[in-house]
Amino acid sequence: MSSRKRNTPAIISSPRPASFAPPKPPGTRSSHVDGRPTTSTGTYSLDKILAGHGGFSLGNSLLVEENGTTDYSGVLLRYFAAEGAVQGHTVHIVGAGERWQYELPGVVGDAEAAADSSKDVKDNQKMKIAWRYERLGEFGSGDSVSPAPRRIPSEAQDSLSQTAFCHNFDLTKQLSIPTPSLFNCITFSPTVSDNDSGLVSILENLLSKLRKSPKDRIHRIVIPNFLSPLVYSQSFSQPEHIIKFFQGLRAILRQYFDQVCAMISLPLELFPRSSGLVRWMELLSDGVLEMAPFPHSVSMAAGSGRSGAATAQEDQPQGMLKVHRLPVFHERGGGSSGSRTSVDDLAFTVSRRKFVIKPFRLPPMEDGGDDQPGGRNESVSKPTKADLDF
User: In three state form, how does the secondary structure of 307-358 look?
Assistant: First the structure.
């Protein structure tokens, strides 16, 4: 008996409709590690070291600590806010007032950016001093065999070329704000009746703005000079209020994980890292960076050419950058652990048109002449004829 089934209708599979991914918000792109949305900090070199995702992952906070009385961390936060304003993001400025938004650096034009990039290429070609310096590449390149570069699809290249992910800024220019309504300046009185009412009002203001915001709107929270006596009263620095504020901020970041990111600066001159309060802030933050500017004596030596720059064409670094923590997103460590390149010896350079973070390199040993101080004749004298005779 035949095993063929009779009167069975043929099943014709209809083609599935093509699924189109929703457009990404401006100023964001997917991480090449795990596809999570990321945005730029406004500093290209800082984007490269943030857990290997090529940007600042949304839903996370970054605590920038600074030693001394300088304000390099404020420059970093201004780049972060200016990048958000250019991309059309909502920028929440806490405690600094409306004047702070008018001090953001302006965007460098395409012609000026091309001239700067060509200058950087020429400087990189002049860095080949000795065979040991030729093997030193940019931050992120391995010491042994470098991995093969990933091929980017043509669609991704077209999308990247249409909208810039990270812009160049000029500190001497003022940013022309396209839409003033994108800024939300949260101010409060330094002296309040309830100790933590000011910090609680900050969280309530942020929640109210996020609930009324569209789902595709990106928000950046900027808190410059946190707990500064010029803005915050002494009662604000109580540990129970600070811990409650950081826990509430972290809850907001986790709830709106695809819309919000935060960057906070803290002066270590007033609150050292050895204190328990600062340690709690670091534990409740996803990333922690410490900026240690060079003292004035070292800066004067840098002007004379004796500094951490490898060549005379390079800009002199203003200080060291210590990475205490980077956001970890998966079991592989998010690119922060297991990396073959150390992130311990990093230096930052602030100039008119760039904020660069790169490995700290000692300059090559220059052999001084006979008449120069520090030359060979000061330590070793010339042999005389009597010394050469046996």
Answer: CCCCCCCCCCCCEEEEEEECCCCCCCCCCCCCCCCCCCCEEEEECCCCEEEE
Q: Which residue has the tokens 């404020």?
A: 74
31-40 contacts at long range (C-beta below 8 A, 24 or more positions apart): 31/55, 31/57, 32/150, 33/329, 33/330, 33/334, 33/335, 34/329, 34/330, 36/329, 37/258, 39/83, 39/84, 39/87, 39/89, 39/218, 39/220, 39/261, 40/83, 40/87, 40/165, 40/166
pTM of the predicted protein model: 0.75
Pull the structure tokens for residue 171: 């500190």
Burial, 207: exposed, middle or buried (Cβ in 10 Å; 0-12, 13-18, 19+)?
A: middle
Encoded tokens for 282: 């670091």
Contacts 24+ apart (CB under 8 A), 205-213: 205/92, 206/92, 206/249, 206/252, 207/252, 209/90, 209/92, 209/184, 210/252, 210/256, 210/259, 210/260, 213/90, 213/259
**Distance, CA of 215 to CA of 253 (rounded, Å):** 14
Gap between the Cα atoms of 41 and 88, Å rounded: 14
Rounded to whole angstroms, how far apart are CA atoms 46 and 289? 11
- How big is the CA angle at 224 (ends 220 and 230), to the nearest 5 degrees? 145
Q: How far apart are CA 217 and CA 210, in angstroms?
A: 9
**Among candidates 361, 351, 362, 359, which has minimal Cα distance to 43?**
351
Angle in degrees, CA 278, 279, 285, rounded to 5: 90
C-alpha–C-alpha distance, residues 302 and 282, integer Å: 32
Distance CA 154, CA 10 (A): 40
pLDDT, tens only, 22-72: 788 888 988 877 788 999 999 999 998 886 778 899 999 999 999 988 899
Q: List pLDDT tens digits, range 69-96.
A: 889 999 999 999 999 999 999 999 998 8
Cα Dmax for the chain? 121
